[in-house]
Fold each of these.
Amino acid sequence: MGVVVRSALWGAATGIVLMAGLGTLVEVTTPSDHPSSLVVTILAILFIAGAVGGVPGVVVGTVVGLIRRSLQRPAVPAVAYPPIPQQPYDMWSELVERCAESTRRVAAAVQTVPKSPARDWLQRISEQLTKELDDVRGIAQLGRALGAVDRQHPVYQRLLKAAHDFQQFENEVGRVALQMFDHPELDAARTHLEVLEKQLPQLST
């Protein structure tokens, strides 16, 4: 039996006993011109005791039981999470993110072009740029592995040039995409797409 139930029963019993005693005391000490039978008197006292003492006793006992149960409940130990390590400033991450931003903007620009075979070609060019981004990350990993901190280091300069090339390519894609809005036909866009494909950063070559 739970703590709350036991407390509620004890509260009800205590209330009934107290009110029954009080009722008996009143009945004995109060003179009456028309005394009732003993059975009727006992039943009346029990009814009043149950209504006036039992119900409030249950309420009070339940509250006490809830308090006791909360005090007995074992405290749940707080989960200790390891501190999040602070990432030091990484000069490589900045350049990689610049290239990644250009790649995302190029992909978004392609989605605005009207559907056509020319757009499919531009989509393939965008996917090639995404593959070049893997090479950008590889160059950054090389710089970290060498422990290079000098911005004049050849690896950093290579990555800096890649970020510049990605930015330039992004601008060219925007120019070609704008032209394809007015002339989405493949024949009209072919020359622009061929030039754009030649300007694609080729980091792995």
Amino acid sequence: MIFGRSERGKPPVEPVTLKILVAGGFGVGKTTLVGAVSEIRPLRTEEYLTEAGRPVDDTSGVEGKHTTTVAMDFGRITLREDLVLYLFGTPGQERFWFMWDELSEGALGAVVLADTRRLEDCFAAVDYFERRSIPFVVGVNCFEGAARYPAEDIRQALDLDADIPVVLCDARDRQSVKDVLVGVVQHAMDYGTAHRPAVTT
């Protein structure tokens, strides 16, 4: 089926649209992830880093980064003919965190992108989604040259509950990112089932 059209003799399918956030620290690969998987040209709100921002922008570990997201990244991917995900990448720097509340409105779930070289940078995102009961998956972006750790070690380092998925991924690779997003949808469904209020008669 071509998106927006139906096969001959079959009624058109109206896809379900879901909102997924992509969060994490500065320079962890959120913009790259959205761009790798989006079937439309991603909307980006990047600005160049300046000398004026140097005192508040910690670029240690990402010295080669020259731009930063100041509002959001936006992309779209069709997982099935009846399921479309809208991706919203959040700004990673602390001075833009006030935008997270607006971006998270109506979100089904989230990807918290992590870099093992700067794992502490994703603590704020993990805490944010835990406090607001938004289901999330931790995606460990496997940068070249970075040490690889088992998912269980990363879970312990982040003090995550046993039911929160931790997956290794490559934010540049479409199939790898797609697998992470499928994991978010599945986890959100499981989370919703587990936290559904009991029906009393």
Amino acid sequence: MTVPRQPSSPDRSGAPEPPDGEGGPARETEARSHMIRRRWLTAIIIVLLIGVPAGYLVISANQSRNSGRDKEDKYSATGLTAGWPSRVQRRLYDVPVQPYSEEVAYYETNNWRTSRLYVQFLTSNAGLTRFLQQIGSKESAFKADDITISERDRNVVGWEFTGPGPWYGLTHRQKDPAPTLDVVVDRSNAQHPMVYVVSTTTP
């Protein structure tokens, strides 16, 4: 006689129960804790990767802006504008400001009879040589203690050539309508001459 097969209990799945420490509520708690830690670590890394460079950029921007304001304040009282003249101005007035120059500032005046561009820049000895070559002059044309920029033009932009120097000057005249350039150089820094130029054109 065959005994009928009893149905499985609805509370039993047929699979063996996992031993303690393998699955179940304890393992789920551990997995959830690990996931939370991983998410926190990921969030911290993202903040560091994005926040630190962003903070550096903000600080750099503020420093650059403050430096620009200092220059503007320094030159505003003299009429000079901190920065480079436009390419058109440099070409029309034949004032090739050298690359990598510092303390660059300019001022332009115009009337029915003459136009002038006042420019200053700090350059290297090689930069000064290139500047003179580009305007068609040379260093031997300089004369010691010759302030070729007139007192009237100095007063326009507040240039005072009273430092210890040594000072050198030249006047580079060209055939109209090309401009005439009055150049004064402060050589107090033997490696980095300060160049002052007044370019005058007559329309």
Amino acid sequence: MGAVDARLGSRLAQLRAEHGWSLGELAERSGVSRSTLSRAERAEISPTAALLNRLCAVYGRTMSQLLSEVEAAPAPVVRADAQPVWQDRASGFVRRSISPPHPALRGELVEARLDAGADIAYDRPPVAGLEQHLWVLEGALEVTAQDTVHRLGSGDCLRMRVWGPTRFRCAAAEGVRYLLAVVRP
């Protein structure tokens, strides 16, 4: 495991302690097993995007907010080579925080890539009513939100408010790259 995974594990343990929850209580709230939570907090595993999404929902944070808490404080200008990258190797998801979140701001930009065949399902948004603008830069993406399937190709943009489960499936043989603008309610 890398340094980011170690800091992330430590931050997850800290958040649980701040709420005064046992591993069992957090497991009930998140739907994630106690053993998986324990292993993630000890950085024995690198959490998947789906796992982080569940924890973000419990803690009322976006994934970018959580990941920014384990990185250095964001500067007004973030050079391309300094933009934090997080990877979920299990699902083929790579996420680059173009504009790391700041407590005084509601919006952020994220570049995402999914490998061919990648399929990620989130059972709930990290923050109910989260506004997302998804612009496909290369490839094709299938997004399911509120039981509606949106098939997007290069240049297409989907705007949505996220209240329930969502699914992102790479519909391109070469993978997909997209920009996600996230605005907290």
